[in-house]
Amino acid sequence: MSGTLKNFRSICKKIICIGRNYSEHASELGNTVPTKPMIFMKPPSAFVAPPNEIQIPPEWDELHHEVELGVIIDQQCRNVSKEQAEKNIGGYCLALDMTERKIQDQLKKQGYPWLLAKGFDTSCPCGDFIDKSQISLSSSVNIWLSVNGKMRQNGHTRDMIFSVPDLIAYISKYITLEHGDLILTGTPAGVGAVKRGDQIEAGLNGDNNLKYAMKINVASK
Amino acid sequence: MADSLKNFRSICKKIIAVGRNYSEHASELGNTVPTKPIIFMKPTTAFVTEPNDIRIPADWDELHHEVEFGVIIDKQCQNVSKEEAEASIGGYCLALDMTERNLQNELKDQGLPWLLSKGFDTSCPCGDFIPKEKISLSSSVNLWLNVNGNRKQSGHTRDMIFSVPDLIAYISKYITLEHGDLILTGTPAGVGPVRRGDLIEAGMEGEHDLKYLMKFNVA
């Protein structure tokens, strides 16, 4: 089964994202900590992988970076419990939830959906598949991001408000999760702006010398 | 190319829905008319087709029906103009944008994303593919929906605030539209609740004797 998950970005039918899943990040944006996961989507057309670049839509000046641990579903699941959740996981990845922050703020004020701010092409830079066996959910993974060589975000998945099994259980109550689907599990504090020409580096470090890093540029034009 | 579109519900990678695209519907929900299209998504797991039922998630009591004219993309397009937009269309369908209205209102009040209220399994009852040549975008299509035999919604696509080419041009500025993608183009006035056990019938009529009908039970 996991053979096809190496190509998860090609078979993925949905990217479900979680907002506000690290309390420091909630505070930095002046938001309260939620009692239930806040879920939104990116379309699969949002995927971009190095050496391709993040393209800021022409009328916008900047985007915000958000580094996240991604979870890739292997076994289709619906209405699973927290306890059952882990066995549906196929693997993990490192990903960014690129966001147009000003538009997102306007949309929030108006009570509008977030798609425009979160779902544009290249809003999901995404690394390669990391097999499930390389990451134990009982351990913490460090995720970090730097811009032009300066560290901006540096967090630990143990600080997630809702754990990966919590998220899978919650989402699958309402939305069937399918083979190849990606869940972005939220971002730690330190989000900030990138502009055309900037270089983003991001990585994750885990137990047993797990190290994954990627570099992606923000296109100059 | 259009042959695979008969199976659009299987190949579709995204459903992009448009809110508030009929002014009477905007008013009935106490909303202002937008200056730009309001766009959101449903995942493709939302699809349900006859003879399967609409399933209200266990913790909810009712859903709102919203009958919509669907547009299916044939040719991948990015940043197309209104004039070029129609060339990318493969066909059309009838669909419903089922919504948990109370939840949507709470999410709106809190500035939160709409996915939970719009994207649950079976929130997109969807009819069959209608080839492009059966409907001319310069004519109007009548959409209607009944609950338990009572007419609830009846509208005309000519009353859309943003036309189909407008919507394709707007969306494709930011999001590449791919072969098999579905755009739900908004709902006319008359939205209201359905509960477990209700029967929804919906249809559309157009020029050249175009008629399409579908029925869904609410489990």
TrEMBL record, chain A:
Residues 14-206 form the Fumarylacetoacetase-like C-terminal domain. Pfam families: FAA_hydrolase (PF01557). Keywords: Metal-binding. Belongs to the FAH family. Its EC number is 3.7.1.5, 4.1.1.112, 5.3.2.2. InterPro entries: Fumarylacetoacetase-like_C, Fumarylacetoacetase_C_sf. The keyword Nuclease does not apply. GO terms for molecular function: acetylpyruvate hydrolase activity; acylpyruvate hydrolase activity; metal ion binding; oxaloacetate decarboxylase activity; oxaloacetate tautomerase activity. This is Oxaloacetate tautomerase FAHD1, mitochondrial. It comes from the Eukaryota.
From TrEMBL, chain B:
One of its GO terms (molecular function) is acetylpyruvate hydrolase activity. GO terms for biological process: carboxylic acid metabolic process. One of its GO terms (cellular component) is mitochondrion. Coiled coil: none annotated. Its EC number is 3.7.1.5, 4.1.1.112, 5.3.2.2. It holds the Pfam family FAA_hydrolase. It catalyses: oxaloacetate = enol-oxaloacetate; 3-fumarylpyruvate + H2O = fumarate + pyruvate + H(+); a 3-acylpyruvate + H2O = a carboxylate + pyruvate + H(+); oxaloacetate + H(+) = pyruvate + CO2. The keyword Metal-binding applies. Keywords: Metal-binding. InterPro entries: Fumarylacetoacetase-like_C, Fumarylacetoacetase_C_sf. Residues 14-206 form the Fumarylacetoacetase-like C-terminal domain. The keyword Nucleus does not apply. Belongs to the FAH family. This is Oxaloacetate tautomerase FAHD1, mitochondrial. It comes from Adineta ricciae (Rotifer).
